[in-house]
Amino acid sequence: MSKIIFLDIDGTLTMPDIGVTDKVQYAIKKTRENGNYVFICSGRNKAGVRSLEYIGFDGLICCAGGYIEVNGQKIYESALSDEKLKLARDVFDRNHVLYNMEATHMTFQSKEMSEMFVSQRLNGSMNSELQRMISEEKDMFNIHSFEDFEANPVPIQKMSFICKDISQLDEPKAVLSNDYNFVVHDIFSKDTINGEIIIKGTDKGKAIHQVVDYLGLSMEDTIGFGDSMNDLQMIQACHRGVVMGNGSAELKQYATTVCESVRDDGIYHELDRLGLI
Predict the structure, then answer these.
(1) Quick one: average pLDDT of 253-272?
(2) Residues 148-168: pLDDT tens digits?
(3) What distance in Å separates the CA atoms of residue 26 and residue 113, rounded to the nearest whole number?
(4) Which of 75, 119, 82, 115 is CA-nearest to residue 101?
(5) pLDDT confidence of 191, banded at 50, 70, 90?
(6) Which of 40, 56, 138, 184 is exposed most, by the fewest CB atoms within 10 A?
(7) Is the alpha carbon torsion for 123, 125, 126, 131 positive or negative?
(8) Are the CB atoms for 103 and 154 separated by under 8 Å?
(9) How far is CA 28 from CA 12, 37, 68, 151, in A?
(10) What are phi and psi of 247, to 5 degrees?
(11) Which of 212, 254, 205 is nearest to 234 (CA)?
(12) pLDDT at residue 223 greater than cutoff 80
């Protein structure tokens, strides 16, 4: 029977400074040539996965389950209601929490959030690389301003946030947890708190079930690779849940197995052990 593999991107398939290694690209290519399916399964929106399409995949799960494509055809898309989007924006603004709004083909965020994301990757250093990396990030995620959104609103599938102090999330959690899965990441930075809010009823695990049903396959043939707590539902849903060696200690408690780190070609080695390449 064909296996169906789901790959998170950041911290799993790639890291900001190394991209996707040749070994991992080879593993994906050979796995597909051997009659298996390989899907991206990411919190990124579709705009954010464009740069990886050259590798070759059978489909995409984006925005943590908010958008699904199989063989280039959209089979599912969700969006925040105008009322709930306004509620989330208001409570984040009141608590000085920076956030973005992720649509299928573009991301809306402030200059301050772009700078904080990039300085995080530079370990807090506001060096000469900052502007170059901000420009790269803007191009990669097709980033636009909030003013552009107000002028031409589009459906928003997910929001990510970042702040300096966990207490800033007290009110947002209390206000938003009834309507959203409120995910706080534990592996990004010691200086900032990163997370995302995802519409309840939408997650990577449910999206995987949709893809498997669409393809007429079995959940027993699923393998998921992830590294952070926004991969929890994927790791729990897949018959084999693989957590990267560099992944969250909490997530590893739910893993079927832990493979090598992303820097040590973990995906390649696990697919090799499974006889798929």
Answers:
(1) 97
(2) 999 999 999 999 999 989 999
(3) 35
(4) 82
(5) confident
(6) 56
(7) negative
(8) yes
(9) 13, 9, 20, 41
(10) -80, 180
(11) 205
(12) yes
